[in-house]
Write a structure and sequence with these properties.
With 473 residues, this protein is an alpha+beta fold. The protein folds into three domains: 22-184; 246-326, Signal transduction histidine kinase, dimerisation/phosphotransfer (DHp) domain (Helix Hairpins, Orthogonal Bundle); 334-470, Histidine kinase-like ATPase, C-terminal domain (Heat Shock Protein 90). Helix content is 50%, strand content 19%. It has ten helices and 13 strands. The strands form three sheets. The chain has a six-stranded antiparallel β-sheet. Strand 10 and strand 11 form a beta hairpin. Helix 6 packs parallel to helix 10 (438-448) and helix 8 runs antiparallel to helix 10 (438-448). The longest helix is centred in the middle third of the chain and has 53 residues, at 179-231. The relative contact order is 0.07.
Length: 473
């Protein structure tokens, strides 16, 4: 059960069904209330018309026993003292009006007969004064029930007052049947109770099918990712649906991530292979010299052994620094003078000319010093006679430039030389060539300090390396 409702499809189906159910209940309640209100108003209007018909007769002076009362609807005429003076003939029981009496009583203080035949003109005048219109404004409504000729039902009662001359103030109560309202409401409720579950079932089924179709590409992506994990084949890619929606963008992003991961893994493998190759040569040379020294001490080349040891030490330091950089080690925020550091790194180098102004930067003084050392070493290997180191301000940047008068770097190789273990053929053939890590380390350090390292053409025709670091605020 937990697995079923843990799926996106199940949650989407359940959510859509609940939303539709709430909307249907609210709409159904509104429809029932509106239907009941309209039908109640109709029953009230019917009761008011019946009452006004009796009011018109009373206003005309018609006696109580001659009133034309609707035998199918409950009608009562009550005087000012609450005495029932007229009622429907078949009325057996009533509730919801001013009195529950069903048999008329003699009126208190009135004539009970109304005006005589000689007063027809006065009666006509009374019936023509618009009493019914004024009476209608004072109509009050109530709900109750009544039994007529043995049949009980609920009614909407209208109470219409009338001034009946010498008979005083009378009130006519007439009922409008609520059977139509109850039947319509019950029918609508039955339809809703039957139809709503069917509609919810349709909504749930459609939502389940739609989400299944929408999530099918996601399942394909998941399955392919599981296969890639199992096979460790990063060259594989997940299928991209042709829907151009969020799922398609997810697939594209996943493939981009796989491509970046594949590049990173290949770079790491290449790094390990190159590092092993670079370490093998000095280690093999050092071992050979030591074995020769053991067998023939007089042939031991101490200078060569020391040189190989130093080379090993430098390579190990480079590899350690690269590992720390790849691990995301923060350079720190210490402030130092890049001009002073440049003069310090150039000290003891006869071929280097320094023109360094004072400029404050922030970061790791040791790592930035390592960058300058690598740049100076690289320039010394390729220069014919002179190397220039300058430090200047350039807006918000501090620029350290190292230029030589060698052959320079071909434009096609200006980005490749910053890759790890990459050495141009001429440098690789020289005995004092490095391992191809110096420039890679220099660029990584520059980037992690918020700067950049680029190479161009020097005024003397050689290479011009420019280290840009943000000026410390």
């Amino acid at each position: 059960m937990r697995r079923i409702f843990g799926s996106v499809r199940s949650r989407a189906t359940l959510g859509a069904t609940l939303v539709v159910a709430v909307a249907l209940v609210a709409a159904g309640a509104a429809v029932l209330l509106s239907l009941r209100s309209n039908l109640m108003d109709q029953a009230g209007n019917e009761a008011q018309r019946t009452a006004q018909n009796v009011v018109a007769q009373l206003a005309a002076g018609k006696p109580y026993d001659q009133l034309d009362l609707d035998d199918e609807s409950p009608v009562q005429v009550v005087d000012a003292n609450g005495t029932l003076v007229a009622a429907s003939d078949e009325l057996e029981r009533i509730s919801g009006t001013a009195t529950d009496a069903v048999k008329p009583q003699p009126p208190s203080g009135g004539t009970g007969t109304g005006a005589g035949a000689d007063d027809d003109d006065d009666a006509d005048d009374d019936s023509g004064r618009g009493e019914a219109g004024e009476i209608g404004e004072g109509t009050e409504f109530s709900d109750g029930s009544a039994t007529i000729d043995g049949e009980s039902a609920d009614y909407r009662f209208a109470a219409v007052p009338v001034e009946a001359g010498d008979r005083g103030r009378l009130t006519v109560y007439a009922g409008g049947s609520l059977d139509a309202e109850q039947s319509a409401v019950n029918t609508a409720l039955t339809v809703m109770l039957v139809g709503f579950p069917l509609l919810l079932g349709v909504v749930a089924g459609v939502t389940w099918l739609v989400t299944r179709r929408a999530l099918r590409p996601v399942e394909g992506i998941r399955g392919e990712m599981a296969a890639i994990t199992a096979s460790e084949d990063l060259a594989r890619r997940v299928p991209v649906p042709g829907t151009h929606d969020e799922v398609a963008r997810l697939a594209l992003t996943t493939n981009e991530t796989l491509a970046a991961l594949q590049t990173s893994v290949e770079r790491q493998r290449r790094f390990v292979a190159d590092a092993s190759h670079e370490l093998r040569s000095p280690i093999a040379s050092l071992r050979t010299q030591l074995e020769v020294g053991v067998a023939h001490p007089e042939l031991l080349d101490l200078d060569g052994a020391v040189e190989d040891t130093v080379r090993l030490q430098g390579l190990a330091a480079d590899l350690l620094l690269l590992a720390r950089l790849d691990a995301g080690e923060r350079p720190g925020d210490a402030r130092f003078d890049l001009g002073a550091l440049a003069r310090e790194q150039a000290e003891g180098r006869a071929e280097v000319t320094v023109e360094a102004r004072s400029a404050q930067v922030a970061g790791s003084r040791g790592q930035v010093g390592r960058v300058l050392t690598n740049l100076l070493d690289n320039a010394a290997r390729h220069a014919r006679s002179a190397v220039t180191l300058t430090v200047r301000r350039d807006g918000e940047w501090v620029v350290a430039a190292v230029a030589d008068d060698g052959d320079g770097v071909a434009e096609a190789d200006r980005e490749r030389i910053f890759e790890r273990f990459v050495r141009l053929d001429e440098a690789r053939s020289r005995d004092d060539g490095g391992a191809g890590l110096g420039l890679a380390i220099a660029r990584d350090v520059a980037v992690r300090h918020g700067g950049a390292l680029t190479v161009g053409r020097a005024p003397a025709g050689g290479a011009l390396f420019e280290l840009r670091l943000p000026q410390a605020q």
